[in-house]
Design brief:
Length: 158
């Protein structure tokens, strides 16, 4: 049986360690860096898009309540936004909130509806047109305004 030939390195000296893995590791590192950069870019783009969608949803939500806010400031409940429009805005805005904030948002929405029904009950005139009566009690109006402010606070862009 013969001995295998001795391993020689790049300089030709016998027993010198030859590292054949180094070029492979360098190439693997380059490939991993490209994939990591692509994933990171994709991740950041997703965050930016989610923030943009939330900002748009906040604007739509606030605009649905804008007539109510303006009418409340001047004391004209007949110019409130229709309840159906507000209900639709609440339902459409809810999915844009994270799970933990949805619970508080749902409670704020229910409280807002209760306060609106108590403060501004629907009244029909002699022609069958739906109008809303302005409550004489300032405390009820203030409670309604606070409920509206709490509901709209969920649409802050922070």
């Amino acid at each position: 049986m013969t001995n295998p030939p001795p391993i020689t390195g790049p300089t030709g000296k016998e027993g010198e360690h030859v590292n054949n893995w180094l070029p492979f590791l360098i190439e693997a590192g380059k490939i991993a860096a490209v994939f990591a950069a692509g994933y990171y870019t994709h991740f950041l783009t997703g965050i930016r898009d989610k923030r943009h969608r939330f900002a748009v949803a906040c604007g739509v939500f606030r605009s649905a309540f804008a007539p109510t806010v303006a009418a409340l400031q001047v004391g004209r409940p007949d110019q409130f936004a229709p309840r159906e429009r507000e209900d639709t805005a609440i339902v459409e805005f809810r999915p844009h909130l994270p799970g933990k904030r949805r619970v508080g948002f749902d409670a704020a929405g229910e409280h807002y509806h209760e306060c609106r029904k108590r403060a501004y009950p629907e009244v029909y005139d002699i022609y069958g047109k739906k109008i809303e009566a302005f409550p004489r009690n300032q405390q009820i109006r203030d409670e309604f305004a606070a409920a509206l402010t709490r509901l709209l606070s969920y649409a802050d862009k922070t």
